[in-house]
Amino acid sequence: MGRWALDVAFVWKAVLTLGLVLLYYCFSIGITFYNKWLTKSFHFPLFMTMLHLAVIFLFSALSRALVQCSSHRARVVLSWADYLRRVAPTALATALDVGLSNWSFLYVTVSLYTMTKSSAVLFILIFSLIFKLEELRAALVLVVLLIAGGLFMFTYKSTQFNVEGFALVLGASFIGGIRWTLTQMLLQKAELGLQNPIDTMFHLQPLMFLGLFPLFAVFEGLHLSTSEKIFRFQDTGLLLRVLGSLFLGGILAFGLGFSEFLLVSRTSSLTLSIAGIFKEVCTLLLAAHLLGDQISLLNWLGFALCLSGISLHVALKALHSRGNPEPLPEASGFCSSPCDS
């Protein structure tokens, strides 16, 4: 009887984990292809990102209110001093990471975007060393070399390579290294009470919106105000379709952050990291099949080399966590904003 109960518990945990991974895949892969699809007809990615931030803030505020009503416990609200001094740097880095990532979809394919964003692990390691969250080891040098070498092979003589788009994604990956390092430092400050991602999203979105607004005003403000697809609209039906499409992206972004949190809380951050590796493979296969992205044998070898570096990083984190309970910086972490997936 005890053995049967153990088997049932194991099967139930496996089914639950699989379901959470599939939910995470739906939101993560879905928002990547959504961004590419929308930017083909709506050429204002920064405005799109800002609207997504507003939707995420709305849903996180509603979620906080529902949890507070059901638990009868007040949610954390930071003071202005803590908000501006401790949250603002993370919010600005996150806004630039997400904004540049979405901007790049105007120029690059999903496959090049996915591969280049995978290099964020490289920058996370570099900044972890700078902020002394990691110690320099030979294994980490190998991780850096594998990811950097894989990125070079994937972009070398790529038939669909775009310099401007690649620079935007690489810049986003660089800032992403700062973002996730600052995010880890923010979450480790237990006195702030931002361990719950709903609270983190609630506090980050307003500052992210303000941080991205100057970039939007300079590069998109005038064009958006004179475009028939938004401010100079003449067709109300078209306006509603555009706003509906933008609102859908906000729902996907919020769902991604929440699904990552569920996966980590019900399993572990290691499960999320491993799922993230296979997610990259699925994204590239779908991009080649659905969008016709051209990926050569050399590109695939570069991608495999990069994934081997990421896998080594995940394995090192798993070994490190056995002897040290403190978390290492996550390449994906939970998404406290519209994820660049």
TrEMBL record:
Pfam families given in the database record: TPT
One CC-aspect GO term: membrane
Swiss-Prot/TrEMBL keywords: Membrane, Transmembrane, Transmembrane helix
Domain Sugar phosphate transporter: 19-312
Topology in the lipid bilayer: Multi-pass membrane protein
Regions crossing the membrane: 12-34, 46-67, 112-131, 138-156, 168-187, 207-226, 238-258, 270-291, 297-316
Record-linked InterPro entries: Sugar_P_trans_dom, TPT_transporter
Location relative to the cell: Membrane
Protein known as: Solute carrier family 35 member C2
